[in-house]
Amino acid sequence: MENPLKQFAIHTLIPIHIGGYDVSFTNSSLLMVIAFALIVFLFFVGTSRKSVVPGRLQSAAEMIYEFTANMVEDNAGHGSAKYVPFVMAIFLVVLFGNILGLVPYSFTYTSHIIVTIALSLMIFLVVVALSLKNHGFGFFKMFFPSGAPIFLAPLLIPIEVLSFVFRPISLSVRLFANMMAGHVMLQLFAGFTVALGLFGILPLTFVILLTGFEILVALLQAYVFALLTSIYLKDTLEAH
What we know:
Layout: E1 12-14, E2 17-18, E3 21-22, E4 25-26, H1 27-46, H2 56-76, H3 84-100, H4 113-135, H5 153-165, H6 167-196, H7 201-233
Antiparallel strand pairs: 1-4, 2-3
Helix pairs in contact: 1-2, 1-3, 2-3, 2-7, 3-7, 4-6, 6-7
C-alpha cells in the first residue's frame, strides 16, 4: 500500500531561485492558481450579465455573497458590512482548497500548516491593525474584562493576552489537522479496498460514504474558518 503521507509531499514543477531563495512553482502553487482562477471565473462570469432571472453561476455567486454577508453581520455586528469582501475571500480560498484536494491525484494546500498559519496570521494582523486604528490604546482594554476586580489584573491580563495570541494557532491547526487526518483516513480505506480485490465491494460502499463525509468536512471547515474570522473582526468594531 502506498504511503498515505505521500500525497502531502511538495513537488517542484518550475524551479525558480531568486537571491539565493527557492521560490519555485510547486504543485501547491499550481492548485492555488487553479483555485484563484475558478473563483475569478465564478464571480466574473456569474455577475457579468446580472440577469433578473439568474443563471446557475450568477445564483451561486449571489448565494455565496449573501451567505457571507449574513454571517458577518450576525457575528461581527453593526457596521461590519465593509468586512464582507475580506471574509468572503478567506472563505473561498479555504473552500476551494478543501474541495479541489478531494479530486483524485490533486493536492490539498489547506492540509499544510504553513498555508493555514499564513492565512491565520494575516487575519490576526488585520484584526490588530484595525483595532488599533479604530480604538487606539483603548484596544488594550479587552485584555482586562470590564467589571473585574483590579487585584485580579496580574492573573487575568496574562490569560487574556495568551488567549488572544493563540487565536491564529488554534485557527490554523484546526483546519490543517482536519484536512490532513481526513485525507489520510480516506486513502487508507481506499488502499484496503483495492487490496481486497473482488472482496472489496462492501468496503467500497464505505469509501463512497467516507468521501461524502469528507466533502461535508471540507465545507464545514471553510465555514468555521470564516465564522471565526467574523467573530475576531468584532473586536475592531466594539471597544471592551
